[in-house]
Design goal:
Layout (H helix, E strand, L loop, with lengths): L1 H5 L2 H29 L9 E6 L5 E15 H6 L10 E8 L3 H4 L3 E5 L12 E6 L4 E11 L2 E5 L2 H48 L4 H32 L2 E6 L5 E5 L3 E5 L6 H17 L2 E2 L4 E2 L2 H32 L4 H13 L4 H24 L14 H26 L2 H9 L4 H30 L4 H4 L26 H10 L4 H41 L2
Antiparallel strand pairs: 1-2, 2-3, 3-4, 5-6, 5-10, 6-7, 6-8, 8-9, 11-12
Helix pairs in contact: 2-16, 5-6, 8-11, 8-13, 9-11, 10-11, 11-13, 12-13, 13-16, 15-16
C-alpha cells in the first residue's frame, strides 16, 4: 500500500475521477437546459375538462396541461375545496388557460379531484397573439369587413389563408416603420444637427437656412408618402377578423392584425408538428422580441452579444499582448515588475460590477462627456457618447479580461527557449525583429488561449453591462444601413441580460420560463462556437510553430 501511494497511482485516479465528475456535471447542466428549452416550440395538445368550483358549480376549462405535482389534501381543504378522501395527498395540474385579457391570468393550478375527464377535441384552436398571449377556444366564423365569409368546417381553411395574407402585410408595415421611416428620421435628425452646429458657430447664413429647409421639405414629402402607404397597409390588415368561443361561452372577435400564428394542435400529425417546430425555432433566431420579451425572437440580443464580444476581442488582444511583451521582454526585472504582476493577477479577481462602476464613471461620464463637449456640442442636452453604449461596454469588458490575456501571453513568452532568441540575434537580427518574427509567432498559441478565456468570460457577463450599455429592448441595432453604418454610441441587447430580464423581471414568469432555458442554451452554443473558432486558429498556429519549438 505504501509503495502504491509513493508511485502516485491514487492521485492519478483521484484526478481522473475529478475530471470525469466535472464532465458529468457540465453535460448534465447542458442536457437540462436543452431538455427544458428545446421543447418550448413543440405544439402541445389543448385539453378541455369540466372543473367543479368550491361552491359546487361547474365550469369548463380549455388550455394546455403544463405541470403535475403532488399536494396535501389539508392544504386544498384550507383553500375551500370540499374533497371527500381518506388519502393525505393528491395531485394538482398547472393549466395554461391563456385568454389573459378575459381571465386575468395565463396560468392557474387546479386540484385533480375537482377535475373531470380530459378530452382533446380536434376543433380546438390555439392562437398566438401579438398582445395578451395565447388564445384558446372553438373557432366559429371568419369575417371580412364585418361580413361573415366562412363558418363551420370551412372556417379553419379560410382563417389560415387570411392569416398568411395578414402576416405578409404586417411584415411590409414593419419594414416601412423600421427601415424606410427609420432612415428618414435619421436623415432629418442629422439635418437638424448640421443646422444647429452652424448656428452655434455663428456661421448659419440665410442661404444655409434655405438649403436646409428645401432638404427638409423633400424628406418630409417622402415621409408623408410612406405614412400614407403605412396607413393603407394597416387598414388592409385590420380588414379581416374571426370569432371564437371561449371556455366560459363568450364569443370573442379577434382581428387578424393582432394574430401572429394559429393552429389546431389536436388535429396535427407528426410531420405537421415537426414543420411547425422548425418554423418557430427559426422565428426565435431571426425575429425581434415582443410581449415584454416573453414571446417572439431574440435576434437583436444575438447580434449585440456577438458584436460586443468581437469588439472586445479586437480591443483587449493588442493591449494585453503589448503589456505582456513589455513586462517580459523590455522591462527590467525587479521589485516594481513583480508588484505589477501581482496587481495584474489580483485584478482578475475583482468583482465584475466594480468594472461596471468604473466604466460608467470613467468611460461614459468622463471620456464620453468630454467627447460630446468637443465634437458634438450641437447635440446638447442629449448625449451622444456621454451615455452608455456598445463602445463603452466593449471597453469595460476589455479592461475586465485584460489580466487574463496578459498572464496567458506572459506564460507563452516564458516558454520560448532562450536559445531561439540568441540564435536570431547571432544571425544579425535586432531585438525587435527577433521579437516580431520569431518570439511572438511561437507564443501565438498562448495568446490565443488568453483570448479564448477572455471571450468565455466576457460573453457571459451581465452585471457591468447593466451600467454601460445593455438595455431591455434596443430600438435599433448598432450596425445598420445608415452612414456611418457602425454606431458605437448606441445601446444594445445582450443574451445574458435577456435571460435575467425574462427570468426575473417578466410579469408572466411561467410563460417566460422555457424561453429562459432556450436563451441560456443559445448563449452557451454561441460561446462554444466562438471558442471553437479560436481553438482551431490556435491549433493551426501551434502546428506551424511546432518545428521552431523543436518538438
Amino acid at each position: 500500500m505504501r509503495k502504491w501511494f509513493k508511485d502516485g497511482d491514487p492521485w492519478i485516479w483521484t484526478t481522473a475521477g475529478a475530471v470525469a465528475l466535472s464532465l458529468v456535471m457540465v453535460y448534465a447542466v447542458v442536457w437540462l437546459t436543452a431538455a427544458k428549452g428545446l421543447v418550448h416550440w413543440w405544439p402541445k395538445p389543448v385539453a378541455e375538462v369540466m372543473f367543479t368550483q368550491p361552491d359546487g358549480s361547474q365550469t369548463r376549462l380549455i388550455g394546455e396541461v403544463r405541470e403535475k405535482e403532488e399536494v396535501s389534501l389539508i392544504r386544498l381543504r384550507e383553500s375551500g375545496y370540499n374533497i371527500d378522501s381518506t388519502d393525505k395527498f393528491t395531485y394538482r395540474y398547472l393549466i395554461k388557460q391563456g385568454n389573459r385579457d378575459i381571465t386575468g391570468t395565463d396560468f392557474k393550478w387546479y386540484p385533480a379531484p375537482m377535475l373531470g375527464e380530459f378530452t382533446y377535441p380536434k376543433d380546438l384552436i390555439s392562437v398566438e397573439r401579438r398582445e395578451w398571449g395565447n388564445f384558446y377556444g372553438h373557432l366559429k366564423v371568419v369575417k371580412e369587413a364585418g361580413v361573415v365569409v366562412a363558418d363551420g368546417p370551412a372556417a379553419w381553411a379560410e382563417l389560415k389563408k387570411r392569416l398568411e395574407r395578414s402576416n405578409d402585410l404586417f411584415s411590409q408595415a414593419v419594414r416601412i416603420e423600421k427601415v424606410d421611416i427609420g432612415r428618414l428620421n435619421y436623415q432629418l435628425e442629422k439635418l437638424r444637427l448640421k443646422e444647429r452646429k452652424l448656428e452655434l458657430r455663428g456661421t448659419l447664413t440665410e442661404a444655409d437656412k434655405t438649403r436646409f429647409e428645401a432638404e427638409r421639405e423633400v424628406l418630409n414629402g417622402k415621409f408623408g408618402a410612406l405614412q400614407e402607404k403605412l396607413d393603407q397597409l394597416r387598414q388592409d390588415i385590420e380588414r379581416d377578423s374571426f370569432v371564437a368561443v371561449t371556455m366560459d361561452g363568450q364569443e370573442v372577435e379577434i382581428p387578424f392584425a393582432k394574430v401572429a400564428d394559429a393552429l389546431m394542435p389536436n388535429d396535427m400529425n407528426i410531420f405537421q408538428k415537426i414543420g411547425y417546430y422548425i418554423h418557430k425555432f427559426i422565428e426565435f433566431i431571426v425575429d425581434d422580441p415582443r410581449e415584454a420579451n416573453t414571446e417572439g425572437g431574440i435576434f437583436p440580443a444575438i447580434f449585440g452579444t456577438v458584436m460586443m464580444v468581437l469588439m472586445m476581442s479586437v480591443m483587449v488582444t493588442p493591449l494585453g499582448i503589448i503589456a505582456a511583451v513589455y513586462m517580459r521582454e523590455y522591462a527590467k526585472q525587479g521589485p516594481l515588475i513583480r508588484v505589477i504582476r501581482i496587481s495584474v493577477n489580483n485584478l482578475a479577481g475583482v468583482p465584475s460590477i466594480v468594472y461596471g462602476v468604473f466604466g460608467l464613471g470613467f468611460f461614459v461620464y468622463f471620456l464620453g462627456g468630454n467627447i460630446d463637449q468637443l465634437f458634438f456640442p450641437e447635440s446638447h442636452p442629449a448625449p451622444v457618447f456621454g451615455s452608455p453604449g456598445i463602445l463603452w461596454a466593449s471597453l469595460t469588458l476589455a479592461l475586465l479580461t485584460l489580466p487574463v490575456v496578459i498572464v496567458a501571453t506572459e506564460e507563452g513568452l516564458t516558454r520560448v527557449p532562450r536559445s531561439i532568441r540568441e540564435g536570431s540575434l547571432a544571425l544579425g537580427a535586432t531585438k525587435a525583429e527577433t521579437l516580431w518574427r520569431t518570439v511572438l509567432p511561437i507564443a501565438s498559441p498562448a495568446m490565443m488561449t488568453g483570448l479564448i478565456l477572455a471571450v468565455a468570460r466576457a460573453a457571459g457577463e451581465v452585471a457591468p453591462l447593466m451600467l454601460v450599455g445593455v438595455v431591455k429592448l434596443a430600438p435599433s441595432l448598432p450596425l445598420d444601413g445608415n452612414f456611418p453604418f457602425l454606431h458605437l454610441e448606441r445601446k444594445f441587447m445582450h443574451l445574458g441580460f435577456h435571460i435575467y430580464d425574462v427570468g426575473f423581471q417578466s410579469p408572466n414568469v411561467e410563460a417566460a420560463r422555457p424561453l429562459v432555458y432556450a436563451t441560456a442554451l443559445l448563449l452557451v452554443i454561441i460561446i462554444v462556437v466562438l471558442n471553437l473558432f479560436a481553438i482551431r486558429l490556435r491549433n493551426r498556429l501551434r502546428e506551424r510553430m511546432r518545428g521552431l519549438e523543436g518538438v
